[in-house]
């Protein structure tokens, strides 16, 4: 499946790939719009982040599991050799909190749907319970 890219500025489909943008963390594909003649990089959800997406996701996962910011920072420092402040982790949590809430809500809904289908398949009589 080929993903079409639209220009971030004029939403044109006349876009071509033209090189890469590099920083300390990641290399991203650059695009050039033939209509408005502007360069852009497709936003992958980690726009303007200076840490690797893997480290951000790991920190968010640990924080959502109930680990304190200090312990998340210490874990990243010990296991991944990443120096990051508690403030930076907190900013990641604030930035991605809506996404975290949505995924938690969706997973809870999936569990409820599974439970309701299981409950429908259980029939109860006076002497025994059968599952179909």
Helix content: 40-55%
Pattern of helices and strands: EEEHHHEE
Supply the number of helical segments.
Answer: 3
Distance between the termini: 40 Å
Number of strands: 5
Estimate what percentage of residues fall within beta strands: 15-25%
**Stretches with pLDDT under 50, minimum 5 residues:** none
Q: How many structurally independent domains?
A: 2
- Can you list the strand order of the major beta sheet? 1-2-3
Globally, the shape reads globular
Rounded to the nearest angstrom, the radius of gyration is 23 Å
Task: Kindly report the average pLDDT value.
Answer: 82
Query: Which structural class do you get from the secondary structure elements?
Result: alpha+beta
Sketch the major β-sheet: 3 strands, antiparallel
Keywords:
single chain, alpha+beta, two-stranded antiparallel ribbon, 5 strands, three-stranded antiparallel beta sheet, 132 residues
